[in-house]
Amino acid sequence: MRKRSSRQFLENIAVVALLFANISAAQVTTARIEDASREPGNWLTYSGTYDGHRYSGLKQITTKDVSQLAAQWVFQTPVTGKFEATPLIDDGVMYFTVANSNAYAIDAQRGKTIWHYERALPEKLRLCCGAVNRGFAMLGDRVFMTTLDAHVIALDSKTGSVIWDTKAADYEKGYTFTVAPLVVKDKVIVGVSGGEYGIQGFIDAYDTKTGALAWRFHTIPGPGEPGHGSWEGDSWTRGGAPAWVTGTYDPELNLLYWPTGNPAPSNNGSQRHGDNLYSNSILALDPDNGKLKWYFQFTPFDLHDWDATESPILIDSTIDGQKRKLLLQANRNGFFYVLDRTNGKFVLGKPYAKQTWAKGLDANGRPVLLPGVDPTLEGVPVCPGAYGATNFMAPSYSPLTGLFYVTSREQCDVFSADSQNYRLGRAYIGSNYVPVMNAKDRGFLTAIDPKTGDARWRFEYFGASWAGTLSTAGGLVFSGDIGGNLIAFDAQSGKALWHFPTGAAVYAAPVSYEVAGKQYVAIGAGNAVFSFALP
Amino acid sequence: MKSEKLRRLVALPFMMCCATFLLAQQVREVKNLLEGNAQAIANGKANFRANCSQCHGLDATGGLRAPSLVSGKFTHGASDADLFSTILHGVPSTLMPGNDLTDDETWEVIAFLRSMQPKSEAVIAGDAQAGEKYFWSAGGCASCHMVRGRGGRLGPDLSRVSASRSAAYITESLREPSKQLSDGLLEPGHDSPIAGDTVTITISSGEKIIGIAKNEDTFSIQLLDLQGELRLFSKSDVQSIVHERKSLMPRYTEAKLSNPALQDLLAYLETLRGE
């Protein structure tokens, strides 16, 4: 009896402890990520929520008091390089990656290091665009990141210890990772970079527990697979189509929406005639097995490096009196697209920035080309330039205003093409792009009404920005510029209400979180993270 | 570190041919084994186009952002080993970046550059002394440009102008200054649209201030005015800011600066390489 009751007592304690563990923030569960909008104090996944809205429900900071916003702390890292990561926040701890496959966990209220992960990287990495990384995914007591030498790793969220480290591909063959992973159920999903190195793109899912590969989707169909015929000869073997920006996910439809990048060589199509599937597309995949449900290709047979690697945003809306499940994307090619996300059908598309290459889109959303825009030996000016009308910088959507906010760029390049021998692991561009001389780069924060595709307002920056966006329940949008300002806008009118000079061009997206009853807005810029709150 | 690495990198192809161990001081004698190799030249051209042409031009003849590499003259050394080192490490405090090319890719780029015939325009026949005189007196150049610590502030410092600009580009700067405005903020990796542009600011009193923007962002502007004074503003405090998209530098047309006098001036500017 006695024995039994004491065991009962211990069991009760265990149950209580278990319960406690369940509600304690240490355990990030898929259920919590699915319902992330219900706990706006945390930021549990790359885009804040699976639908990619980057909308914070916090409303301590509003249009009325944002002018009082003041820096609470600055966290300096010794790692130089572009800061592109979106920090994650759970229970007062901020997790972020920086350049050179380094990462930190810090006290989100006080800006103090908890741990620092530093990776020993090989000397000659194959990087087109900087030693960058865009952040973590988390589940349980682990955080997951990708590395420049093409590994996917899981770290202990309390200590930064490596739990598993899986080599996904060979960096010497041009494969690398910059993407923030996405956790869906028990899998961590990543897409590869290397579109400038003639890789064969893929999207991978790894078991969050073991790091074992669960499935791989090849973004270029192999022989015998549908779509293979969209590549000339053996060009598919070096066709690029990377997948370097984090996708979004609809738990109800159980569909993962992952964008893909340019066909290689980007400027020279003379040996890859065809649509080059599935480059520059949105892929709707079953996250359980990686099977393709549908695809939509924005720029078939691309010759201007217009990756479709811009985060897709999922909204439910009424169009022509019908309730629709939609997917929104502001594409690098200068058009804003609305798709039906149940089947990939084109709903509408309109230019949202200066473009000189397409007459428009046909009924299926396929571009109708203008003549004389293909790169030549001497070069041809085309807008947008290779960096696109937007790029990896994250857009956001506010259910409050019903508007889609995107950093848009108006900059044109002279695109040239020339023959190039493919060599394994080497840059494979087929010539180059150079800004049009004496033309001024222009950049905007653009608010688009997804029902019409028309811009509601545009705020013009000085120069063309690379910053992502955050919208909030306080009626605000936060973004930044190349002058290094973090800026708060009125989400309704586009008026700039507050700004803070961080001292380095902003490439990251802001996030918002709450600790001890206080709302913070944080941004990475330069080698540092800055966090702001009301006094 | 730097020289140790260079020695290792350049020694390899040499050792393959001669099986001689190289001492560091012999590095300068190293020859590019890929010179004249058609395949290497083609690969080098592709890599040059992809990695270098945005500054040096598709045909390596230079332009707004970088010097010609086919003029036959090199500021940083003309030997294969010098080129290898410049391409690998870049030129500090200029736009010329270090590169991640593999060793063989670098040798291929050098083979491509060597395969280009020097452009005849590079041969400047003028009298440098006459050009120098013009620069410091009749031409009025020194009222706006500094050379080795002397001269005006409004235009770019020209002490190293021929290290970073081709003769063709300099000629265009004189004949048609507004065609390509110089990059204003020459900070490597600085993604800045600041140009050597004429900016007119109307301040709240209605007074107009003309000058060159040393920097600008969405909310502020830092101007160097015609008097050579720094004028710093928040945009919210001024009435208007107009970017003229033209140079403050007068056009030196043929009427003003004859072709022979231009050759003299170019011959002088040719000597300005920062030594």
List the helices and strands and how they pair.
The complex is a heterodimer of chains A (535) and B (275).
Chain A: H1 2-23, H2 30-34, E1 55-56, E2 70-76, E3 88-90, E4 93-98, E5 102-107, E6 112-118, E7 137-139, E8 142-146, E9 151-156, E10 162-167, E11 182-184, E12 187-191, E13 202-207, E14 213-218, E15 248-250, E16 255-259, E17 281-285, E18 292-297, E19 313-319, E20 322-330, E21 335-340, E22 346-351, E23 358-361, E24 367-369, E25 380-382, E26 396-398, E27 403-410, E28 413-415, E29 433-435, E30 442-449, E31 454-461, E32 470-472, E33 476-480, E34 485-490, E35 496-501, E36 511-515, E37 518-525, E38 528-533
Parallel strand pairs in A: 1-32
Antiparallel strand pairs in A: 2-38, 3-4, 4-5, 5-6, 7-8, 8-9, 9-10, 11-12, 12-13, 13-14, 15-16, 16-17, 17-18, 19-20, 20-21, 21-22, 23-24, 25-28, 26-27, 27-30, 28-29, 30-31, 32-33, 33-34, 34-35, 36-37, 37-38
Chain B: H1 2-18, H2 38-51, H3 53-56, H4 80-89, H5 103-115, H6 128-136, E1 146-147, E2 150-151, H7 161-164, H8 167-175, E3 198-203, E4 208-216, E5 220-225, E6 230-234, E7 238-243, H9 259-270
Antiparallel strand pairs in B: 1-2, 3-4, 3-7, 4-5, 5-6
Helix pairs in contact in B: 2-5, 6-9
